[in-house]
């Protein structure tokens, strides 16, 4: 279990910023430092689902793409991408996406991506634990119900129906997709899950509101009720909780055009790219090329320098010290300790 390593950089502890990437040698501007490979797990929001290639994330200015798979509701820019997607998902994966689509289709079930997730305080760890424990209790009933070969008691059936009724009002296609993608990753790549995902920086308070927490718990119950039985033992509340905790600190936005483009189509976690800390004057540039991110030295970097990207969007880099600090705290939950902030911090 170790972070990525290369001839150009190593991952080290950085004062006040956890681990970070440090140059192992002098690196000339323009050097490609890292290509991340595809995301371990990601989501393309439902509203962009018909316009974004399910494999390579190609987006043609909102036009519908030519290759459509009606059963899984995925679209692709080419037959080749469709074939690659099918191969990557495997039989179990394709079946799982079919089950999800069957669940979503009849009721035109939607997305909360752009919806107000409600006001209120961030749930604290104790409250998060309580809600997930209650959810797990309900999930156990659902699992027994689905796996049981013997007829259920009337009371059990009623209990299961009550759970599904309760959760049925609040269905979030985006969280469901994200959880399913993460589940398939762990199912297919258990070693990478242990070595790369479980060691990422995790957020202990990842839910913005109580409603946000409930959406996650409901999505877990929905998937317990519909996933192919083969996947069920691999799909746990612990997995869902890790996916949410990891995405808050590590996800990269998947945008349509350049890095700062307006169309925010989804997000993904790329473990090898998760060790770049933020700087308000970054020395790396990042660019999404299809399914992966490429990180390039934006200037000459000296041996021992920390290699940083910017977590802020285009114009945000011009914000004042206090506005940048607020933005990073609100969105990412940390007090920026980069060199520029240290220099601009009023005494
Ligand atoms: C993608 S991770 C970067 C790697 C992380 N430092 C680690 O130890 O795994 C993002 C997290 O790193 C920390 N971080 C990144 N840039 C920082 C900065 N400029 N100042 C303080 N903390 C920072 C924050 O905790 C943030 O949520």
UniProtKB/TrEMBL annotation:
<dbReference type="InterPro" id="IPR001214">
    <property type="entry name" value="SET_dom"/>
</dbReference>
<protein>
    <recommendedName>
        <fullName>SET domain-containing protein</fullName>
    </recommendedName>
</protein>
<dbReference type="InterPro" id="IPR050869">
    <property type="entry name" value="H3K4_H4K5_MeTrfase"/>
</dbReference>
<dbReference type="Pfam" id="PF00856">
    <property type="entry name" value="SET"/>
</dbReference>
<dbReference type="InterPro" id="IPR046341">
    <property type="entry name" value="SET_dom_sf"/>
</dbReference>
<feature type="domain" description="SET">
    <location>
        <begin position="7"/>
        <end position="312"/>
    </location>
</feature>
């Amino acid at each position: 279990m170790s972070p990525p390593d290369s001839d150009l950089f190593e991952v080290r502890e950085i004062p006040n910023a956890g681990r970070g990437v440090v140059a192992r040698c002098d690196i000339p501007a323009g050097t490609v430092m890292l290509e991340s490979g595809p995301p371990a797990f990601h989501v393309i929001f439902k509203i962009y689902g018909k316009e974004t290639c399910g494999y390579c994330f190609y987006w043609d200015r909102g036009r519908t793409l030519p290759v459509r798979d009606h059963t899984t509701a995925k679209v692709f820019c080419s037959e080749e991408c469709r074939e690659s997607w099918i191969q990557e998902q495997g039989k179990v994966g394709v079946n799982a996406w079919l089950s999800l689509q069957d669940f979503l289709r009849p009721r035109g079930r939607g997305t909360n991506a752009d919806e107000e997730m409600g006001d209120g305080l961030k749930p604290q760890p104790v409250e998060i634990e309580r809600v997930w424990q209650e959810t797990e209790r309900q999930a156990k009933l659902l699992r027994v119900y689905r796996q049981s070969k013997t007829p259920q008691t009337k009371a059990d059936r009623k209990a299961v129906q009550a759970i599904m009724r309760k959760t049925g009002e609040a269905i979030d296609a985006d969280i469901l997709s994200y959880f399913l993608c993460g589940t398939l990753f762990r199912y297919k790549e258990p070693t990478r899950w242990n070595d790369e995902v479980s060691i990422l920086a995790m957020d202990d308070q990842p839910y913005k509101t109580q409603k946000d927490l409930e959406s996650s718990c409901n999505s877990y119950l929905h998937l317990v009720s519909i996933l192919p039985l083969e996947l069920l033992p691999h799909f746990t509340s612990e997995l869902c909780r890790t996916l949410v905790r990891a995405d808050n600190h590590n996800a990269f936005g998947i945008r349509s055009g350049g890095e700062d483009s307006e169309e925010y189509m989804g997000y993904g976690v790329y473990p090898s790219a998760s060790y770049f800390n933020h700087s308000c004057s970054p020395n790396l540039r990042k660019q999404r090329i299809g399914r992966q991110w490429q990180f390039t030295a934006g200037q000459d970097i000296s041996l021992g320098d920390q290699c940083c990207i910017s977590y802020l969007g285009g114009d945000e880099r011009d914000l004042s010290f206090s506005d940048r600090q607020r933005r990073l705290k609100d969105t990412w939950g940390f007090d920026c300790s980069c060199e520029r902030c240290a220099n601009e911090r009023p005494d």
